Amino acid sequence: MKIVLDRVAKGTRGAALPPTSLRFTTGQAVLARAETEQRPSVLGLIASGRMRPDQGVVTVDGAVDFGAMRRRVALIDAPDVCDPAPDVTVAGIVAEELMFAGRPWHLIAVRRMLSKLELSEYARWSIGTVPPKARIRLLVELALLRDGVDGVVITAPDRHGGDPSAWWRIAREVAARGYAVLVIAGDASAAAIGASELVERLTATQNETAIDDDTTLDSTDAPTGAIDIAGVAAMTTAATPTATPTDSDNA
């Protein structure tokens, strides 16, 4: 499955969402940056086929088909759209999602699902008190239970706090299982993830390279030449495809 948003916008003069271009496809996790309280949900709704843009084109596998997008793409935790009420228990959410997926949703089934996800300790917790990483994993895995779901759009996970690398790791793991994954988050989270992945790459490179007598890090320690330290500050998620709402197509 391949979802493409080509210069989509919403609202007068793009107030709700400025012209934005991105694409996400099966087996790929993409991070899209969207700031302000409203824009992440608007972008999530459009990217999952649940809202039509005022301008621009949205396609799934080359065709304009919002019905197919709604069936095949699950929208996860979008603020004021599909985020669970904060006082609902985790067990209650699991039971409801099992029911929607056409599966047994009695107490034993709920316990088995939470055990499978290694989240049993949170069964009686209200979802508003669950750690961000556990919350995102729970909601994503429950959405994937539904027949016909080929992709997910995870909306503003950074609003719950925690380490952005934790939920980004979940997104990459889900993509590796054959799903299309789009994560919509703010600039700060994108920068943190990019910096973290750059450190991982540098660490991996150093582990694969013979250690010289000089303990300082300079251009001789990088197999491809000088290290662009300035690139760390400018980087968002260079190790993976990204999309940024701007006036130009960054897909």
The profile of the biggest β sheet is:
5 strands, parallel
**Structural class estimated from helices and strands:** alpha/beta
Task: Order the strands across the largest sheet as they lie in space.
Answer: 5-6-7-3-8
The Rg value, from CA coordinates, equals 20 Å
Instruction: Provide the low-confidence segments as ranges.
Output: 209-242, 244-251
What is the CATH class designation of the domain at 2-81 and 151-243? Alpha Beta
Share of residues in helices: 25-40%
Give the ordered list of helices and strands: EEEHEHEHHHEHEHHE
Euclidean distance between termini CA atoms:
16 Å
Strand content: 15-25%
Mean pLDDT: 84
Corresponding CATH architecture of the domain at 2-81 and 151-243: 3-Layer(aba) Sandwich
SS summary, helix count = 8
Query: How many distinct beta strands?
Result: 8
CATH topology of the domain at 2-81 and 151-243: Rossmann fold
What is the 3D shape?
globular
Topology (elements, then pairings):
Blueprint lengths: L1 E9 L6 E9 L3 E5 L5 H9 L7 E6 L5 H7 E4 L13 H11 L6 H10 L15 H12 L7 E5 L8 H13 L3 E6 L1 H22 L21 H5 L7 E2 L8
Parallel strand pairs: 3-7, 3-8, 5-6, 6-7
Antiparallel strand pairs: 1-2, 1-4
Helix pairs in contact: 3-4
Task: Give a brief description.
The longest helix is centred in the last third of the chain and has 22 residues, at 187-208. The chain has a domain at 2-81 and 151-243: Rossmann fold, CATH 3.40.50. 35% of the residues are buried.
